Amino acid sequence: GGAEMTIHNLYIFDRAGTCLHYGEWHRRRQPGIPRQEEFKLMFGMLFSLRSFVGKMSPTDMRDGFVSFQTSRYRLHYYETPSGLRLVLNTDLGVPSAREALHHIYSHLFVELVVKNPLCPPRQPVQSDLFRSRLDAFVRSLPFFGPRPA
């Protein structure tokens, strides 16, 4: 019955590839490798995709790539001017998560992490407030839940 609309997980990387935050909600199966290894693979894939898309593009792209999909899920990508990279994996029923990612960055990350003297830059985020606000925001999105069968 129709494409599912569900959020699986979210990664926030800095420009050097450190995973500053990872959250998951409806992740169907674990990758079977250590988390740090998964972060490295994800960042490496983003890095390759980004340069590939840039080289193949006939015109200069302002936004670079914003999403790609497999037969099972869609990866939404948002890169900030400072090189922070946000990745949200969802079911195919979610057409765009750009506004949600922008909100996570500008209203949650900047306000609760960047402006927080207790959160050192380039370190994984230790702020419980950021985590709980982010979780509440993600759960409030119209495309959050697995729809009742």
Automatic annotation (TrEMBL):
The record ties this protein, via Pfam families, to:
Sybindin
The primary location reported for this protein is endoplasmic reticulum
Cellular component terms per the entry's GO annotation: endoplasmic reticulum; Golgi apparatus; TRAPP complex
Places the protein is found: Endoplasmic reticulum; Golgi apparatus, cis-Golgi network
Does the entry feature the keyword Nucleus, yes or no?
Answer: no
Function in brief: May play a role in vesicular transport from endoplasmic reticulum to Golgi.
Oligomeric and partner information: Part of the multisubunit transport protein particle (TRAPP) complex. The heterodimer TRAPPC6B-TRAPPC3 interacts with TRAPPC1 likely providing a core for TRAPP complex formation.
Family, similarity comment: Belongs to the TRAPP small subunits family. BET5 subfamily.
Q: What is this protein called?
A: Trafficking protein particle complex subunit
